[in-house]
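Quick illustration, no need to memorize.
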Amino acid sequence: MNSTQPHQGTAFLDSRDFARVARAITYVDEHFREQPRLATIAAAARLSEFHFNRLFRRWAGVTPRQYLAFVTANAARRALAGPASVLDAAYAVGLSGPGRLHDLLVTLDAATPGEVKTGGLGLHMSYGFAPTPFGTALLASTARGVTHLAFIEAGGEAAAVLELTGRWPCAHGHRDDEAAAQLSRRIWGRPEPGAPTGVLKLSARGTNFQIKVWRALLELGSAGHTTYAALADAVGVRGAAQAVGNAVGANPIAWLIPCHTVLRKDRRLGGYRWGAERKRAMLAWSSLRALEPGTPRSGSERAAGAG
């Protein structure tokens, strides 16, 4: 793998290390009122204080104690600003600042009818596994753009490839973990010298309705959190939040189509295809990154849905 380091404050983790970080974030979000000591938070992550503090700081750019203060301050501000309880405020942790999804312009095109009808016959697809800030992911691309991004738990690699090839049974696929790692670094890390820049193209297979929802999600979710009801309004099907939720759950390109930013109407996290702990960690990571000095704010982080 290329030795180029990710963005300062970002650790690319395998599934096991990410699980430790995610457990710690959940513990802090649920127990911040107790102001737990570092040793207690580290125990929730099943690591020593030293190793946990180092891992968390590499991943988040702040120490666990600083994250605890961040959660506590968010909850206090929200509790003082309205009738919401402190518990409700805790569920909204990480959402008070502008969401930082990525520094890329993203366009989404639907797979062509011919590609869908033939199951990708004649389509050349590169796929591979790579570490990300949220654990190991399976990434796949074609000449038309990124077509798949899914987070994988340890031991789930074979099943993940079967799911991918099941969506494109006639495509010619070849495994290239280095290409996947380069794509991961482009999405979450510091750009490398000579690396591709500009618009990141996505090519997703879905129904017309699903594509419409995913484009709306690019527009709404890239600016911060949104709701199923807001997405339903955006695609012109007010009151059809359940149908919109099904489309969100079918998203084949995690993070870049930001389904993790969708909350329930009561601002609780709700479900997530790749796990509620991962969703919570994504929201926290985005907000913490948004607080870094020199980090672009949401005004410069646009997502464009190509028609």
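The two ends are 36 Å apart (CA to CA).
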